[in-house]
Structures are given as C-alpha cells and as structure tokens.
C-alpha cells in the first residue's frame, strides 16, 4: 500500500465540486486516511510550494491557494501516487485526458481543481505538512 497527499483546491471548493471529486476518489479505490477542510495562510502556501519559489507563477499560485478553503487529503491504495495523478489528469486542463478531474472541472493551468504528490519523497514531505499521526486513520 502507498500513500499520497491530495488537495481539492479553492476553485473546486468554491464551486461546490468537492463532493463530486470525493466520489471519484472513493469510486477509484482510494481509502481516505486523512481529510480536513482548512484555509491556508499565505505563509503555509509558500512553505508547501517552496520547490516552485523561483517559478514565475509562484506568487499568483500562493495567493490562489490561500484565498479560500481547501480540502486536504491523505489517500491510500496500491500505486496511490501514480493512480491519483492519472485520475487528476494533466496540470493544464487543456492537455488533460477526457474523464479526468482536471478535464472535467479545472478552469485553467493555475486554478486546476486538484493537487497530488509527484513522488514518494514529495508525499513524505506533504502528508506531515498538514497531518499529524493522530489525524491519519
Ligand atoms: P500543482 O500540481 O498543485 O503544482 C504546482 C501548481 O502550480 C500547479 O498545480 C498549478 O496550480 C500551478 N501552476 C500555475 N502555472 C503553472 C505552470 N505554468 N506550470 C505548472 N504549474 C503551474
């Protein structure tokens, strides 16, 4: 079993798409080990996305991620990291496969409805960034 970290982003929560995205998560065999609704501070968003701090989109991204609540998740299944990325689709919804979350729900490359860890080392940073051991069940 593998764990990954996921976020239902502000654009999706604002448009009341969280239930539809959670339904896809469960229908695709992921166990939800942790889940909470939070509103990130600007500083939390900057810390979470620190690997992107030199990228031109960093400031806009951190403003977007801290503008309204998100749902943070720890998901578990065999091959969870790759399978969640497949279910989300490409970062840019214009390039996402039909039937993926980003193709169906995302607004653009920034407001792209969902986040997922891209590797085991990333998941090992991202899961404890938002969850303590008692919150993973
Ligand atoms: P995410 O998978 O959370 O990882 C970084 C985020 O930066 C990405 O989804 C998008 O929300 C955002 N982003 C904005 N512009 C770009 C871009 N040009 N390339 C990649 N990510 C971008």
UniProtKB/TrEMBL annotation:
This is Nucleoside diphosphate kinase. It comes from Oryzomonas rubra. The active site is at residue 115. Keywords: ATP-binding, Cytoplasm, Kinase, Magnesium, Metal-binding, Nucleotide metabolism, Nucleotide-binding, Phosphoprotein, Transferase. It comes from the Bacteria. Residues 1-137 form the Nucleoside diphosphate kinase-like domain. The keyword Nucleotide-binding applies. One of its GO terms (biological process) is GTP biosynthetic process. GO terms for cellular component: cytoplasm. It is found in: Cytoplasm. GO terms for molecular function: ATP binding; metal ion binding; nucleoside diphosphate kinase activity. It holds the Pfam family NDK. Its EC number is 2.7.4.6. Major role in the synthesis of nucleoside triphosphates other than ATP. The ATP gamma phosphate is transferred to the NDP beta phosphate via a ping-pong mechanism, using a phosphorylated active-site intermediate. The gene is ndk. Homotetramer. It catalyses: a 2'-deoxyribonucleoside 5'-diphosphate + ATP = a 2'-deoxyribonucleoside 5'-triphosphate + ADP; a ribonucleoside 5'-diphosphate + ATP = a ribonucleoside 5'-triphosphate + ADP. SMART domains: NDK. Belongs to the NDK family.
């Amino acid at each position: 079993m593998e764990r990954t970290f996921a976020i239902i982003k502000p654009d999706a929560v604002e448009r009341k798409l969280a239930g539809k995205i959670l339904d896809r998560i469960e229908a695709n065999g992921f166990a939800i080990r942790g889940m909470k609704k939070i509103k990130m501070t600007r500083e939390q968003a900057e810390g979470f996305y620190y690997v992107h701090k030199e990228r031109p989109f960093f400031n806009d991204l951190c403003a977007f991620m801290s503008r309204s609540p998100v749902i943070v998740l720890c998901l578990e299944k065999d091959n969870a990291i790759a399978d969640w990325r497949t279910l989300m689709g490409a970062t840019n919804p214009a390039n996402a496969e039909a039937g993926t979350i980003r193709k169906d729900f995302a607004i653009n490359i920034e407001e792209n409805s969902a986040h997922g860890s891209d590797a085991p080392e990333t998941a090992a940073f991202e899961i404890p960034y938002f969850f303590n051991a008692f919150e993973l069940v």
